[in-house]
Amino acid sequence: MKKRIKLKIVTKNKSYQIIDSPLYKLKSKKKLVDLLGFSLAELNLLKNDEENYSVFDQLSKKGKTRKIQKPLEKLDRVHTRLASLLTRISTPNYLHSGKKQHSNITNANAHVNSSNLLTADVRSFFPSTTRTMIFSFFYSVMKMSSDVADLLSYICSCHDSLPTGSRISMPLAFFANYRMFSEIESLCKALDVKMTVYVDDLTFSGSKVNRLFASTVKKIISRHGHVMHPQKTKLYGERDPKLVTGVIVIRDRLKIRNEQHRLMSVEFEYWKLIKDIQQAKDTSFANKLIGRMHSMGVIDERYKARVLTLRANTRV
Asked: Tens digits of per-residue pLDDT, 110-138?
């Protein structure tokens, strides 16, 4: 049986403005067919939800289940091609997700030495990004013809929403909501507020960040068809330790969360049990611990040396 090749987003180190994208002003289905490498008949079949997705429940780390829609092989190839094209479009400096040399840590680091700070979350960001929003992006922002935009909006949605388990999910979630983020950015520029975005997490810092500012952001998000999550909206004062995309910001420095230390300790105990068995380095236990410590090492360099020691003491 032939092993399926795992697809990856390919940017070819290209980065260009939206008007230089081959998707921009795409007016003919024939050109779309040439761009994606599938016939029009095949693309029309990929519009159907039932035959083209694997839908299942996934348990989160916090014990909550969420519905995952993962595209099957042919649709996966189309989504990966589209994601590759979208990720070549240059994005604003405020975006820290889905970009090389950016992460949740660079997102948090942008707010060191901040005064007041607001963290907000768009509730159910992928599911609440509708097919209509996706169509509007392709039609109004990318300037495609209505028939091409319509076809792509169906191909890129599942049950009328952006799928949660596709390579298209993250880049298209941003671009389909680009006008919402741009409106919030304009507000921030007018008030000299720093804004960053990491997937569905929005962070704002500056002296003008207050309850009125939070209320204005909430109204903008609502006007664009989303909800600012009430339980995940928090306003911090200048002297408060601030939790920003999983990292603690304390005045002029970043600090690792206690929760990360706890998880590392648990994983370290598992590692001690398996470190001497054959091919221990390839186990999920070792990889998870090494990955966590590497991430912690970006914040605290002492963990970088511990990663080297850990690797040296794990059997190949």
From this structure: 999 999 999 999 999 999 999 999 999 99
The predicted model scores a pTM of 0.88
How confident is the model over 155-213, as pLDDT tens digits?
999 999 999 999 999 999 999 999 999 999 999 999 999 999 999 999 999 999 999 99
HEC readout, the chain:
CCCCCCCCCCCCCCCECHHHCCCCCCCCHHHHHHHHCCCHHHHHHCCCCCCCEEEEEEECCCCCEEEEEEECHHHHHHHHHHHHHHCCECCCCCECCCCCCCCHHHHHHCCCCCCCEEEEEECCCCCCCEHHHHHHHHHHHCCCCHHHHHHHHHHCCECCECCCCCCCHHHHHHHHCHHHHHHHHHHHHHHCCEEEEECCEEEEECCCCCHHHHHHHHHHHHHCCCCECHHHCEEECCCCCEEECCEEEECCEEECCHHHHHHHHHHHHHHHHHCCCCCHHHCHHHHHHHHHHHHHHHHCCHHHHHHHHHHHCCCC
The domains of the chain are located at 18-90+130-176, 179-253, 256-312
- Token pair 């330790």: residue: 241
Cα distance between residue 93 and residue 295, in whole Å? 22
| Distance separating alpha carbons of residues 271 and 286, to the nearest angstrom | 6
